[in-house]
Design a protein that fits this description.
With 129 residues, the chain is α+β, with helices and mostly antiparallel strands. 55% of the residues lie in helices and 19% in strands. It is elongated. The chain contains four helices and three strands. The protein has two domains: 94 residues, K homology (KH) domain (GMP Synthetase, Chain A, domain 3, 2-Layer Sandwich), CATH 3.30.300; 30 residues.
Length: 129
Amino acid sequence: MKTHRPARVGELIKREVSDMLLKGQIKDPRVGAGLVSVTDVEVTGDLRQAKIFVSIFGTPEAQKLTMTALAEVTGFVRQEIGHRIRLRYTPEIAFVQDRSLERGARITRLIDEIRAEEEARAAHKEEGN
């Protein structure tokens, strides 16, 4: 029987880490180098590990600085999660950059370009007739 507990714990972690980011409780200034939001959290079935997916808006340099800073504050974030969420064992955490928004924007741009090319071809064809 599959349990929903990992998903519930993931939502709790997502809420708490988002709250910490929103309230500026992660003091490393590099975290502010890019606008950070938690997009998802995946927790293993045994609740021992959690991947925290973050979307970072900013230059590639700012994104890299932010990911470096987040990697360095995992201990603090894990400790805070342990204090805020009552679990027998606080999962090991890892921050992972979520690039799905970037990929989605790229796909949208490509579709727009193809649509514009098709419209230009159609207009050119009509002019030729």
